[in-house]
Amino acid sequence: MTKTKGKVNLTINQRFAIARGREQGRTLRQLAEQFKVERCTFGKFLKRWRARNGQPEKKRHSRAPVTNHQTDRNIVRASRSNPRLSAPEVLDQVSPHGSPVASVRTIRRRLNDAGMFDKRPVKKPYISDRNRAARVAWARAHLSWTQSEWERVL
Asked: Is the overall model pTM greater than 0.85, yes or no?
């Protein structure tokens, strides 16, 4: 008999069938072979089933999100416009008049959902306008160099 490994989620029909089978006098071993699940799964399930008086488990509702779609977009937009901002600074920018919309942890979660993680942009050396002009002039002067001329540079 092949059995499943790991957590098993029984469907509602399976749950009722297991309860009916147990009421009809089938053993846990017979039920385990029929549904190809470990015996201990049925023991735990039947214990909970009896505690709820044969009612199926109620769906659990998750907590309502603190931010809406528009706020999530504003969080991502604030971070993309200035990648050097930390999560508390993004929260200050997004929150209206100092009343926080969400926690710093929520801001981090929204940024992670958007694919933005704890990475800061690389700091690059400042290039002055004079140096930039000199670099562009050098690049234009050497634009038509051949492979052999570049090899002499190395």
From this structure: no
